[in-house]
Amino acid sequence: MTVTEQSPGAPGPVDRSRVVAVVGTGAMGRGIAQVALTAGHPVRLYDAVPGRAAQAADGIGAQLDRLVHKGRMDAAERDRARARLHPADDLARLGDAALVVEAVVEEPTVKQELFTALEAIVADDCLLATNTSSLSVTAVAGALKRPGRVVGLHFFNPAPLLPLVEVVSGFATDEESATRAWATVAAWGKTPVRCADLPGFIVNRVARPFYAESFAIHEDRGADPATLDAVLRECGGFRMGPFELTDLIGQDVNEAVTRSVWESFFQNVKFTPSLAQRRLVEAGLLGRKSGRGWYDYGEGADRPEPRTAAPAEAPAHVIAQGDPGPAAELLDMIAEAGITVTRRDADTGTGLVLPGGGRLELTQGEPATGRNLVHFDLAPDYRAATRIALAPAPYGAERTLQEATGLFQALGKKVSVIEDVPGMIVARTVVMLIDIAAEAVTKGVATEDDIDTAMRLGVNYPLGPLEWNRRLPAGWARTLLENLHRCVPGGRYAPGLALVRRTCAGEGDVS
What we know:
The protein has about 500 residues and is of the alpha/beta class. It folds into 3 domains: about 20-195, NAD(P)-binding Rossmann-like Domain (Rossmann fold, 3-Layer(aba) Sandwich), CATH 3.40.50.720; about 205-290, N-(1-d-carboxylethyl)-l-norvaline Dehydrogenase, domain 2 (Orthogonal Bundle), CATH 1.10.1040.50; about 315-415, 2-Layer Sandwich (Transcription Regulator spoIIAA). The chain contains 19 helices and 15 strands. The chain has helices at about 25-40, 50-70, 75-85, 110-120, 135-140, 175-185, 205, 210-220, 225-235, 240-250, 250-265, 275-280, 330-335, 400-410, 425-440, 450-460, 465-470, 475-485, 495-505, and strands at about 20-25, 45, 85-90, 95-100, 125-130, 150-155, 165-170, 190-195, 315-320, 340-345, 350-355, 360, 375, 385-390, 415. The strands form 2 sheets. The protein has an 8-stranded mixed beta sheet, sandwiched between helices. A 7-stranded mixed beta sheet has the order 10-9-11-12-13-14-15, with helices on both faces. Helix 6 (about 175-185) links the parallel strand 7 (about 165-170) and strand 8. The chain is elongated.
């Protein structure tokens, strides 16, 4: 089943007097229950472990107290919410629910057995929702007599704080069920996005290159984790870098999702897991929860600093040749810094000619090897960026590197010098995100707008990947991928048909 371009139809107002039941009282289950409760529903909590539902209800009550203390909820509203929250010691007590959301262990058999039991208890109009992040909604519903009422509601942790919810239609999900689920989540103040039941849904599918490209650069000794994180944050505009983010998520959790998506796509090379991350998991270095992952979180441990170049003298003048493409705003910034910019047309090559005769160019996915050349990385906003990565050609470009370093330092940027990595860091990551996102639209995973919304709200990207593609010059992402594919053959960087079609059409809005 694919997701169409149409917006959900008008399902009518959500009846907040209807019971919402949550099965599973871990962090996610408690969070979902709190969301439904504060939206005004009576909520029933059930857990297979005796006493755990009551403990979860107490925990939710404590969270409400904290909201009152912070001024985000008044005491009377808290008391009304508490009165609507009821732990259940028997699954049969969920019989009058209009919606049941399960947040139990990620095991297909466990979820199927739960929904089979619920099907015999709840009314025919009750929606059954799974909060799975990686399992097939179609498979979970496959054992039921009425699979049409099963839908995925993938909340992001912590559910009370993060706005995104992926509303996933399985192969057999009725359109009315998906529309009602979408409307319910929207009425709760969340931002729902519709998606088809394909591996990874939206976020876990499209986000894979964000981790994979930095891990691959690290494995190739192109840069260390602290530098890669810093460049993606301070140049790329991402909230966190992939090494610190996976340490927060848990290396075992992140690696398991990556492996699940890779295997679900029959080991597609674009989703290949990282061997370095696998070794961390095998060693029990799972991140913050184990005290060490990519970084050491032990008491007194120092956080590694990103590689940052020493101060260098800025050049007095530069020659700008050809169309600077995505880096056009740099020319005004250079002039504003008091550096003379002479503009010249060029039939071949674009970039800056520095006083020593070397060139400074935005990466195009090719190595600088063998030339008096330094590449610089892509940024969504060069004015806002506080760090830039430079990749010099090995041997012979030392003066060019010093002049390039001084130039960016004169613009107020910290400079990280990395090895001669094709595509560098931000550019390589972004074009891979664009490629995977474009394919997801074409495959019917979700609409273009929903994919961009999901990536901005679900994982805090500065721009949705397809919006980013529209801001880049036509064909720029495809060209960089084609150059990467020549440098690193094997298929990982070969631009997908969806991106090729967009380029051929001369616009970023064609699916």
